[in-house]
Hints:
Largest sheet: 3 strands, antiparallel
CATH topology: Dodecin subunit-like
Number of domains: 1
Number of strands: 3
Strand content: over 45%
CATH architecture: 2-Layer Sandwich
Low-confidence stretches: none
Strand order of the largest sheet: 1-3-2
Shape: elongated
Amino acid sequence: MNFKFDLIEDKVEFYEAPSLKELEKKINSQIEHNKAILLSVHHVSHQMHLDENGRTYYSAVVHFKAKK
């Protein structure tokens, strides 16, 4: 029986939250999980949106790369 392991080199994740504090909490939690598979944050992009009722909504894209 042969096992072959491929390392994840790049991973892109998307997040959404109704507040900036919640968005930050979600991202920080996932950063800790990705450290376990040897990924670190390479780039973060975020946006704030207003819905039709004027409520704010936050989104972010985080690019993780393998530590070398």
